[in-house]
Specification:
By secondary structure, the protein is an alpha+beta fold. The protein is 46% helix and 11% strand. It is built from 23 helices and twelve strands. The strands form four sheets. The chain has a four-stranded antiparallel sheet. It has a four-stranded antiparallel sheet with strand order 5-6-8-7. A two-stranded antiparallel ribbon has the order 1-2. It starts with a helix and ends in a 24-residue tail after the last helix.
C-alpha cells in the first residue's frame, strides 16, 4: 500500500493527518504500525494518550505463539477418534419353489444360464395350471432357453463396439424426422424419431423439447381437482397470465388490473401480486395499490424507462417453478391422473408435495446426471434410446444400447459420441484423425511426439495390415519337422 493510501486509511479510523503522516514516515506500513507496541509509538514522538488512541484504532496483530506448551497441557489433548466399525450385511435371495425346481433342472441338464433367466421363466409360469407345468415341460423350457442363450452369445474376438454401432445406426436410417404429440394434449410436443436419437448420443445439455412426466400420490392421483391444483402450482405463472396491463403514455404510468377469475383458478391473492411487484428491482418504490388496481409510476420522464417497466411487469413471476412453462393433466388407462409438463426442472419438482418422487421422469439426461448421479443418467440413456427406437417400430437388442450408455458415462460424466466426447478422446492418433479434423490431430501428435500402438480397427486399416479381431486375433505358427524325426 502506498504511503498516501496508508495515511488515508489511518484518517478514516479517526487519527488526525499529522499523527498519520508521522506514523507512516516512521513505520512505513499499516502492518508495521499495528505490530509496534506502546513504547515504540511513544519513542516515535506520540504522547501516551495518542499512542493509546492509535493502538485502539488499529488494533494489535496477534502473532502466532512459538512457545512450547507445558507438559500438563499436552496431556489434555483429546484422543484421536476411534476408527468406524463397518458391519458386513449379506442378503441371500430366497428362491421360490418354481425357481428352485428350474435351477435343479438346469444343473441336471448341465446348462449354464444366468439366474435372471430362471427367475423370468418362473415368473411367467408361476400362476399357470400345475397340471400343465410338468417336469418334462420344465425340462423343455430350460433346454430351449439354454439353446436361445447360446445362440445370442457373441463370438470370441468379435468387435462388440462395431456390432453395436451397426445395430443402432442401420435402423436409424429408417426413422421418422418428426415430433410426437401426447394423445389429447396437442400443446405438449416431444421430439421423437431420429432427431431425438441424435440428441441422446450427442449428450445435449438441454433437449429441444424438454418435458417431464410427474406421477402423483394418494388422493391427488384420483382427484382431478387436486391434480389440477398441483399442476397450477407447478407451472410458472407470470403477471401477463392473470392480469390486464394498460400503458398510459401521456402520464408515463402503468395500470395493472388483475382478473379475479384467473387469480382464483391459480390460487393467487391480490396482495401476492402487489408484494411480488414491489420486490422487482426496476419497480422498487413505484408500486401503489388502488382498490383492485395497481399503479406503477415511472421514476423518470422517459419512454425508454416506461418500456423497460412494461417488460418487467409482463414477465414478472407470480408463482410456479422456473423452467416449467405449462403443466397438463393426463388420465391414465387405470383412471389415475399424471401431470405432463412443457419444460423441465427435476430438482424442484422432487420437492413438491404429493408428487411420486421415485417415479418422476424427465427427458433431460444431463439434468438427471446433475440431480441423481451418473448411474441414473446411464439408465436414462438406455431407457430413452430404447423407447425412441421401439416407438419407431425398430427392434434393437437392448445390450447394444447398454454398451453405448456405458461408454458415454464410464468416466463419471455424460460424454457425447463425437469429436468433443468419446471419438475425440481415443488413444489412437490415426483413429482420431480418421474421424474429423485430420490435419489438426496429426499436427498436434507430431508436435508432442505421440505414438500409436495400432491396436484398433481404424488405424490398422489405414496402414494396410490385418486387424486384431476375429481370425486376425489368432497367430498360427508352423514348425516343420526335421529329417529323422518320428512321425
Amino acid at each position: 500500500m502506498a504511503k498516501k493510501d496508508t495515511v488515508i486509511a489511518l484518517t478514516k479510523r479517526g487519527i488526525n493527518e499529522e499523527t498519520a503522516a508521522l506514523l507512516v514516515n516512521t513505520f512505513g506500513s499499516m502492518s508495521a504500525i499495528a505490530d509496534a507496541g506502546m513504547e515504540a509509538l511513544i519513542e516515535a514522538g506520540l504522547t501516551e494518550e495518542s499512542a493509546k488512541d492509535v493502538t485502539a484504532a488499529i488494533g494489535k496483530r496477534r502473532r502466532p505463539s512459538t512457545a512450547k506448551k507445558p507438559a500438563a497441557q499436552a496431556e489434555d489433548v483429546p484422543d484421536a477418534p476411534a476408527a468406524p466399525v463397518f458391519e458386513e450385511v449379506t442378503h441371500v435371495r430366497e428362491y421360490t419353489p418354481m425357481e428352485s425346481k428350474l435351477i435343479a433342472i438346469g444343473e441336471k441338464l448341465g446348462v449354464d444360464l444366468p439366474l435372471k433367466i430362471y427367475v423370468d421363466i418362473a415368473a411367467k409360469i408361476e400362476n399357470a395350471d400345475e397340471s400343465l407345468i410338468t417336469d418334462d415341460v420344465c425340462e423343455k423350457l430350460v433346454a430351449r432357453a439354454a439353446e436361445m442363450f447360446q445362440s445370442h452369445l457373441m463370438d470370441r474376438n468379435e468387435s462388440a463396439g462395431i456390432m453395436a454401432a451397426h445395430s443402432i445406426g442401420e435402423p436409424g436410417t429408417q426413422m421418422n424426422l418428426r415430433t410426437f404429440h401426447f394423445a389429447g394434449d396437442s400443446f405438449v410436443s416431444v421430439t421423437k424419431g431420429l432427431p431425438r436419437l441424435i440428441e441422446i448420443v450427442d449428450a445435449r445439455r438441454e433437449p429441444s423439447t424438454p418435458s417431464m412426466t410427474v406421477p402423483l400420490l394418494g388422493l391427488a392421483k384420483e382427484d382431478e381437482g387436486l391434480a389440477k391444483r398441483i399442476a397450477s402450482d407447478i407451472e410458472i405463472t407470470t403477471l401477463a397470465n392473470v392480469a390486464e396491463i394498460e400503458t398510459d403514455v401521456t402520464n408515463l404510468v402503468l395500470y395493472i388490473k388483475p382478473i379475479p377469475e384467473l387469480l382464483k383458478d391459480k390460487g393467487i391473492e391480490f396482495d401476492d401480486v402487489v408484494d411480488r411487484l414491489s420486490k422487482i428491482k426496476a419497480l422498487k418504490g413505484q408500486v401503489q395499490a388502488e382498490d383492485f388496481r395497481i399503479k406503477v409510476s415511472s421514476s423518470e420522464p422517459s419512454f425508454k424507462k416506461l418500456q423497460q417497466m412494461s417488460d418487467a411487469v409482463r414477465n414478472a413471476k407470480i408463482k410456479g417453478i422456473d423452467g416449467i412453462n405449462q403443466a397438463f393433466i393426463k388420465r391414465e388407462k387405470d383412471g389415475t391422473f399424471t401431470i405432463i409438463t412443457d419444460g423441465s426442472n427435476l430438482k424442484e419438482i422432487l420437492k413438491v408435495e404429493m408428487v411420486d418422487a421415485a417415479n418422476v421422469m424427465t427427458n433431460s439426461i444431463c439434468e438427471i446426471a446433475d440431480v441423481l448421479g451418473i448411474e441414473a443418467a446411464r439408465n436414462a440413456i438406455v431407457r430413452e434410446a430404447y423407447s425412441t427406437l421401439e416407438e419407431a417400430g425398430l427392434n434393437v437388442d437392448i445390450r447394444h444400447i447398454m454398451m453405448v450408455a456405458d461408454l458415454m458415462t464410464n468416466d463419471g460424466t455424460v460424454r457425447a459420441i463425437g469429436r468433443h466426447g468419446v471419438s475425440g478422446k481415443k488413444s489412437s492418433v490415426l483413429a482420431r484423425a480418421a474421424f474429423e479434423i485430420t490435419t489438426a490431430h496429426l499436427l498436434h501428435a507430431a508436435i508432442i511426439g505421440e505414438t500409436d500402438g495400432l491396436e484398433g480397427v481404424t488405424e490398422n486399416i489405414i496402414v494396410g495390415q490385418p486387424v486384431t479381431l476375429g481370425t486376425g486375433a489368432v497367430n498360427l505358427q508352423y514348425t516343420p519337422k526335421k529329417k529323422g524325426d518320428n512321425e
